[in-house]
Amino acid sequence: MDIETELLYASRMMVAALIGGLIGWERERHASDAGIRTYMAISIGACAFSLISAHVGNDPTRIAAQVVTGIGFIGAGVIFQDKGGVAGLTTAATLWATAAVGMASAYGMYVLAIVTGGADFCNPRPSPPTRLEAA
Q1: How is 69-81 classified by DSSP, letter by letter?
Q2: At residue 124, does pLDDT exceed 80?
Q3: 5, 20, 112, 134: which is deepest, by most CB within 10 A?
Q4: What is the distance between the alpha carbons of residues 33 and 64, in angstroms, rounded to a whole number?
């Protein structure tokens, strides 16, 4: 691989890290369980897998689909039910959207990455756990 391609991939990784870190910083400010390091790692990981699949594979959509599935699995682990309430939905959703930021950055879709990250960043503050009522 030539140095120009390496620098292009590195710049895409930096965009993913920056946007993921900003989302994590906002979530950390509101005392979310997942913070800067988690969101940055999700964004960087999604970007790295997408870059690798685009560079070495014939079908980059296969890895992209697995990134979405894997982040969904992580998100499912964040959601829990406690005394009739559900918590972690916002964290799970923002982790999933942050993976999309990393993937968009990897494919050079910088405007999409910024818009997705901005929408994720401006997501309203988490509310208290929702009570589920029996019918």
Answers
A1: HHHHHHHHHH-EE
A2: no
A3: 20
A4: 26
Task: Give every strand in the sheet of 85-87, ordered side by side.
Answer: 80-82, 85-87, 130-131
Average pLDDT over residues 102-106: 95
Query: Tokens at residue 18, please?
Result: 């920056």
| Backbone angles phi and psi of 98, in degrees to 5 | -70, -35
Amino acid letter for position 107: Y
Averaged pLDDT score across all residues of the chain: 87
Domains contained in the chain, number: 1
Does 135 reside within a domain?
Answer: no
In angstroms, rounded to a whole number, what is the distance separating the alpha carbons of residues 72 and 131? 23
Within a 13 Å sphere around the CA of 120, how many CA atoms are in the beta-carbon half? 28
Residue of 77, 124, 121, 78 lying closest to 98 (CA atoms): 121
Structural domain including 97 reads 3-124
